Amino acid sequence: MEISLLYSGVNALIVLVILSSPYKIIQKPIDFGSLNLLQTTDTASTDFGRLQFNPPASVLKPKTPEDISLLLSFLSSSSFSQVSVSARGAGHSIHGQAQALDGIVIEMSSLPLEIKVHENGEMERGLSYVDASGGALWIEVLKETMKVGLAPRSWTDYLYLTIGGTLSNGGISGQTFKHGPQIANVLELDVVTGKGEMVTCSPTKSSDLFYAVLGGLGQFGIITRARIPLQQAPKKVRWQRVFYDDFESFTKDQELLISIPELVDYVEGFVVLNEQSLHSSSIAFPAHLEFKPEFVKNGRFNVYYCIEFAIHDNQLEGIHVEKIVKEISRMLSYMQSHLYSVEVSYLDFLNRVRMEEKSLRSKGLWEVPHPWLNMFVPRSGISKFMDFLMESISPNEFEGPILVYPLLSDKWNINASVALPRAIETGKERVMYVVGVLRSINPTVCKMDCLNKILHEHQQIAQAASRPHIGARQYLAHHPSRIAWHEHFGSKWTRFAERKAQFDPLHILAPGQGIFPRVTVDLQE
Ligand code: FAD
């Protein structure tokens, strides 16, 4: 489309003057044509992590993807603007990844919510799928698809995240070992590139952009629609928890469970550090636990582990889920008599973290700082990594879960932008663990110094673990410098940088990730 056409109805001069102002502060809401740039809000400057607060100059609430295209076309062709732009989904990042200091935050939730289910869709050779807008929440997609007995296959633990937000990272949970991450479960995307071009892409159409955007940390384009394959939603889920007092048996059994995907639908696990971690992780699990761990023995801290696994129960196919659970449990070596099994609805199972959220909110412990660290660790390094991690943790003070569960390398598409451990990318190892240190900070107990100390420790752990003896990579990464990003992507850096040059040459998009500084082109040069 001609640029001049795009600008019709837009008072380009006003935008240009304001956006190139050295102060870059928009004092009043501005209405120019169909685009509505609004005064900034507290929400646009913050996120779930509560560690970074970067106010943008302005907020765009788009009514259509064309509004986003209009803005990005304008910025990418105005050679002296320095403004950058961040799409903001649900703002559940930790380190300001969806923020844009002095720039423009696009509130993706303003796009009309469109969730259209296609049963046995003709476009996808009989496969059922859903077309959902980029700002839709996964919970909204689930509720809509379940109306016709269908659901996406691959999830995150928490569902109040947007489609665009998780597809920009990876999207992992207990189903990933079986179906791959969410980024491996996408058929097609509508994307507005950093140049403002609106492109429909898929593995066969503009595939460069398709794979760039998946796991692309918002660097290449803004996802306005995703087409996601669907499967039959089970009626019920049989959900088990088994406990361990040694790490080796815990991981051995997790690996056994992921080796039988024909029987098991979900595998996760977590470290049981203290009473609080046992209690808070059990809020959604409706069983009375007889498990009474001895956390301190002979003056030393004892740590336990819990595997969660689940089996879908369609209740139609004559499969006796109880029998399968019995068969599987015979193969496992958990602490005797500590298997707990419950039956819950599929929705309650997938939406389990919402119950934890409600409980934490009621205690004022949801909107608090979250210095989280997430790592992908090759199997060969997991014991070393855990020893190293646990040295930095005081079990009696730690609040929040530490998740540990295995994923399989062959379920990831290496064309996607996400960085994985080298041993996984090269196929040297097939199993990698995700370790999520999901700490909540009670601000009355842990003040600024204490929070900074934790952040510093995390940085050191991430740095040390990325060296070859462990070979880990951060997931939902946060790095202090471009060099560190370069190391993060390793041999994939060149491709990542080339994709940036192709789709967002002025580095307008997602400045909050801190990867590419904004490019300015001086007209007088
Ligand atoms: P935002 O924080 O709004 O944005 C994240 C990044 O994506 C930013 O760079 C932003 O610019 C970009 N972005 C946002 N929307 C778009 C778009 N439409 N197009 C292009 N770029 C876009 N992750 C997992 O994988 N598995 C989990 O189980 C999991 N559980 C979580 C539980 C909680 C309680 C929280 C807070 C986070 C969890 N996460 C999990 C992490 C989560 O997937 C990421 O933080 C994700 O980015 C959040 O989505 P969002 O919509 O809030 O994105």
From TrEMBL:
- Look at the named UniProt entry and state the broad enzyme category this protein falls under: oxidoreductase
Q: Does the keyword Acetylation apply?
A: no
Q: Name the EC number(s).
A: 1.5.99.12
Is Oxidoreductase among this UniProt entry's keywords?
A: yes
**Record-annotated FAD-binding PCMH-type domain positions:** 52-233
Q: Which SUPFAM superfamilies match?
A: FAD-binding/transporter-associated domain-like (SSF56176), FAD-linked oxidases, C-terminal domain (SSF55103)
Q: Which BP terms from GO are recorded?
A: cytokinin metabolic process
- One Pfam short name: FAD_binding_4
Q: Which residues constitute the signal peptide according to the record?
A: none
Report keywords, A-Z.
Answer: FAD, Flavoprotein, Oxidoreductase
- Identification of the protein by name: cytokinin dehydrogenase
